[in-house]
Amino acid sequence: MKALLVALNASYVHTNLAVRLLRASTKRPVALLEMTINESRDVMLQKILRERPDAILYSAYIWNWSQIQMLGRYIRKAFPLIKQYVGGPEATYDSAERMEAEPWIDGILRGEGERSFDDFLACLEGEADRKQVPGLVYRRDGEIFSVPLKDTFAISELPAGYDEEALDHRIVYYESMRGCPYHCSYCLSSQDDDVRYRSVDEIKEQMRRIFNTGTQLVKFVDRSFHIRPERTKEILRFFIDEAPKDMCIHFEMNLEHMTPDVAGVINEAPAGLFQIEAGIQSVNPEVNRRIHRSTNLEKMKKAMDLIDRDKVHIHVDLIVGLPGEDMESFLTGFDRVVPLRAKKIQIGFLKLLRGTELRRRAEEFRIIYDDEPPYEVIRTDVLNGEEVLLLKNFATVVENYYDEDAFLAVRDELKRRGVKPSDFYMGMAVSLMENIHEQPIKNRQGKHLFLYRFLKEKHWMDEAMYLALKEDFYFAENKYIGGILPVDDPELGRQAVVDFLKSHPDFVPADDPLKASKQVRGITLGATRRYIYYEKGKYKNHMDERKDHGQ
Question: If you placed Cys at 311, which of 33, 271, 302, 448 could pair as Cys (CB 3.0 to 4.6 Å)?
């Protein structure tokens, strides 16, 4: 009996921690196949069949359930002797109903599979009865039966999941604790409030092996990594001392509970080593009461101010569609979050996940959501369907014009004029919706042009705004601005370019500065002059020179 664990990841860079933990939880032979949801059905089928499995075990999530259904139904018709089982968060809840709706599923393994996986494989081999597999949902004589789950277990029994693998350019996910002390009604982690920790020594040992995989990004899946400050500081110091150069470690933290001593250790790290994600979700007290959260924005701001932003990227999250959150409340919250100066403001849309309290209470809160994964909000009693679509454009605009320090000078100029961030981004969102047929920001050039036209329409494009836009343009682009925008920005005279080339003979590989000047454009950026070298019309290099004190 050959068992095959199948993971369908969102993209190649992602890896699946769950199937690795399952494989590591047994000494019985089990194969593992990772694919992506972007592969065609036929390619995925051939990869599966090449393994010659007798039983397939799918790892199911909201992002891959549609593809699993497609594969499962096809395989049941084409290869009916292959048994097919499902586990993971998308199958753990409402399992009996799922089995009734999907006759191709032979069984569902619910809950913490590492506890029961060896028993499950023994069952497949005929060495154990199905009734002995904790969490198994199975069919017998046309009826569906469920075996009770076992109690939770200490995760110190678990390996890291990743050992001797080549994971260059891929993300490693790591679990240093399991469970969550909070009870947010939209989150599956709220179902497990038995918080369990790995020991620091175990984390160090496992991380040293992960360092050898070649990965440059490790994401802790812990819901609140820094709950225990002393433990947290020891782990952080370990990464500072031993993490490979150019590695980034991503944590999710509740910054309201960030202590100054933990922030101090974070600031000891080299730039780029640590990245923090902080879920705000909503700043409306009534909305937070409904979802069992509390957000103290002032405490969060104080914590963020303790952290060196030049070294550490902080991303914050907001959710559209929470019960009681109308358009005005959401935009007011956005305006209150912008001054926190997060590197990214990630705007997500409420997902009514199976097994969560909010899904059970969706009718009570009058939340209408999509029947298909990821079960995203369509409308609520205070947010209509058109507003949800408009906020999707708002999220797109924020992603393109706020995140990753994009358009800093324009943002500063708007702030100087007293323009509310929500008015600016919502104005662009409305314009994007009106011009969606043109896909105006589908590339970098379109992004600059769309912003330029919007600023012109709002009558904000005066000299100060143009200088800000130009600064942002040349921060991101190597091209001459007149090639993208309908402007004729004055360039430095030929003699200024020749003088620069004489003093920097290595900038252009040519003996004659006058002749070489035909390949160089000079522009002014505030107190800086930029010289851009083109070869046969293509960008080759640029150099900046301060006008007041040279290079």
Answer: 271
pTM for the whole structure: 0.90
Burial (CB count within 10 angstroms: exposed 0-12, middle 13-18, buried 19+), residue 437: exposed
Give the integer Cα–Cα distance in Å for 530 and 521: 8
Q: How far separated are the first and last CA of the chain, in Å rounded?
A: 70
Find tokens 């700043």 and name the residue: 283
pLDDT in tens, 138-155: 999 989 999 999 888 888
- CA nearest 372: which of 48, 70, 40, 106? 70
> How many of the other CB atoms lie within 10 Å of CB of 382?
19
Half-sphere exposure (CA, 13 Å, Cβ side) for 547?
A: 11
Q: Which residues sit opposite 144 in a β-bridge?
A: 139
Token readout for 212 is 């050898």
Is residue 43's pLDDT more than 50? yes
C-alpha to C-alpha distance for 453 and 171, rounded to whole angstroms: 38
Residue found by looking up tokens 């006058």 in the block:
514
Rounded to whole angstroms, the Cα distance separating 169 from 166 reads 9
Burial class (CB in 10 A: 0-12, 13-18, 19+), 112: buried
Locate 315 and state its tokens.
């991303």
